[in-house]
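Quick illustration for those who missed Monday's session on complexes.
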Amino acid sequence: MPRVLITCSGCERPVYTGLTFEQWFTFDWVDVQGATTVCNACGTANRWTKDDAYLEADGGGD
Ligand SMILES: [Zn+2]
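Prediction with zinc ion bound:
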């Protein structure tokens, strides 16, 4: 299951939001009020919406 990632505004690394592709569709509130995810690498609290997020490639091959 692909994970939902954002790009950290502090270190520009991918940060896992805690959501997966399946959960993505149930999180309409992200569009309304945004969400905040703290980067594990640098500690930056990134405020984001669905426009900022993307899906990680599943990487499972065929
Ligand atoms: Zn960071």
